[in-house]
Structures are given as C-alpha cells and as structure tokens.
Amino acid sequence: MPPQWFVHFECLQKSLQHVQYQIRRAPEDERQGAPFTEVVMADELPANCRKPAITEYDGTTDPQEHLSRFENATLLHRYMDEIKCRVFVTTFSGTA
Length: 96
Description:
The protein is mainly alpha-helical and 96 residues long. The chain has one domain. The chain has helices at residues 4-25, 28-31, 38-42, 63-77, 81-88. The model has no long low-confidence stretch (mean pLDDT 81).
C-alpha cells in the first residue's frame, strides 16, 4: 500500500489533469484572462477562506513537502477542490 502522502499527491495530480483538460476544451474566449476554468471560478470563496499558514514555495525546497503541507492545511479547513486550486497558487513566491 502506498504512503498516504503519495495517495494525496496522485489525487491532486489527477485534479490538475482534469483542470488542464477542461481548459483545453474551453472555447478560446473563455480561456483568455483567467487562469482557471469557469467551474473553478464559479464557487464563491468562503468568508473564512484565507491563505494557509505554510511557508511559501520559492522553488528551492522539496515541492512534495510543500504540497503535503498545503494538503494538510486545506484538509483542516475543509476546502473543496475548486477552492484549493485558487488558494494553491497563493502559496508560491518569486519565480516558483
């Protein structure tokens, strides 16, 4: 049985692939100006939604560790996948 972090990583990877697929399928005018699909952007951010209290990823540390910390923080707040997509990009800094 694979470690739990690997299962979470695979799940997030599948979600990302699904988002990429949806972006490729979207008409050109929908893809311009927004980094996410309508499905991801349709959900309103919860009033208590905030950036997880984790160290920002700058490309110099282990990306798997960053992903694991992000997953743990979002599990605590019970963020839906669409919200995770929008929040995840806020955890990067610099050129990461």
